[in-house]
Amino acid sequence: MAAPSTPATERPPVLSPALQRRLAQIGRSIGLPLGSIVFAFIIGAIIVLVTGGDPIHAYGDLLCGGFGLACTGSTYPIYNISTTVVQAILLALAGTAVAIAFRAGLFNIGAEGQLIAGAIAATLLGVNLASLPGIVLIPLVLIGGMLGGALWGGIAGALKAFTGAHEVVTTIMLNYVAVYLVEYLVTGGPFSLKTAGGNPRSPAVGPHALLPPLIPATSTFLGLPGAAYQISIGLFIAIAALIVFWFLLRRTTLGYEISAVGQSQRAARYAGINVSRTIIVTMLIAGAFAGLAGAIFIVGNPVQPYLTNSFLVDTTGFDAITVALLGLNTPIGVALGALLIGGLYVGKPLMQSDAGVDGNLVYVLQALILFAIAANFLRTLHLRLPALRKIPPSQSNVEPGVAAYATDIAPSATVGSPDAG
């Protein structure tokens, strides 16, 4: 008689269900920005081909000029990387200002104005307190820049909380106020420095106010003099700011309140959260991050440590919107988004001179990335349409509990989940 066969033992799953769900969530979070970037570069390549250019050559120059990759000939990749990092420092700080506002359901379009306010405050302190030692003056200048930006952001927050004025309108208008305030200050105003044949500018901040460079100017690093690298300790300040951003969101009561207000103001009020106070505090913090970027813009730049009217064409605060959305409003995502956008801008001149492709392609790529990310807002549109909200639960993909507060869904709920990052 044959022996009875023993049933095959079931192999336990390699990953626990909770870990599988977490990995799936991470995959979905990464998929949106990566897919947006791939989409933008494919459309960009088609545009270059149609206009008679070579997209492989153009993108190769972008990689070389911005990231030191795929370079040929006598180039210094480390110099290209360092220049990108300099750009990314400001973009990361300004992007954080946009991201934290998004977390609270606020569209902070005013990072540029807040950055300028921080630059004005930093210049004022750096010029008038130039006799102080650096160990005292540098913190004062940075804190002054943060306070200047916080003031500018707080105006929009207070108007939103007390009058209901939409932050998109107020922050855009405050951008114009800041830009032309600088124009007034340096063109015949109290900050004006008369220079023969030069552009309008303010006096330079004192040398003790400048952030120390990572590589001393008198040294040589990888075949180039240290003065060629403009990276300062502002890099560490930006990293610290991103860590503060993460800690604030994930480890503090205020961070929970910001996320709760961003998910649903109605639910937040029901839970006992002071929504008006949270909105004002969020915009104050957002402005402080952007103001810190403005301070570093002045005191982290040994070549131009003064105010000019260049803010008329500066786009750092507006590029920060792309950085925040591309980074899904998370600290790591903002850092990576800042490196990408910064690298594109730094690589633009090489692409234009070597591949013969107009540098405006970078703006096209940035716009396409934003367009692709904006498609994720279709889910918000679905939740906001009354006709669609009447779909029975069995036919709807909306998560339980979300539809109850559909009218209060915030941008942060669609761009990135509060638990991401």
List the helices and strands and how they pair.
Elements: H1 17-50, H2 55-67, H3 77-103, H4 111-128, H5 134-163, H6 167-186, E1 220-221, E2 224-225, H7 234-251, H8 253-263, H9 265-270, H10 275-299, H11 316-326, H12 331-355, H13 361-374, H14 378-384, H15 386-389, H16 411-415
Antiparallel strand pairs: 1-2
Description:
The structure is a single chain. This protein has a domain at 86-219 and 226-334 and 361-385 and 398-415. The longest helix has 34 residues, at 17-50. Strands 1-2 form a two-stranded antiparallel ribbon. It contains 16 helices and 2 strands. The N and C termini lie far apart (62 Å). It has helices spanning 17-50, 55-67, 77-103, 111-128, 134-163, 167-186, 234-251, 253-263, 265-270, 275-299, 316-326, 331-355, 361-374, 378-384, 386-389, 411-415; strands spanning 220-221, 224-225.
Structural class: mainly alpha
Cα-to-Cα separation, first versus last residue:
62 Å
Strand content: under 5%
Shape: globular
Please work out how many helical segments DSSP would assign: 16
Largest sheet: 2 strands, antiparallel
Roughly what is the average pLDDT, rounded to an integer?
A: 84
Q: SSE order, as H and E?
A: HHHHHHEEHHHHHHHHHH
Helicity, as a percent range: 55-70%
Strand order of the largest sheet: 1-2
Low-pLDDT parts are 391-421
DSSP strand tally: 2
Radius of gyration: 24 Å
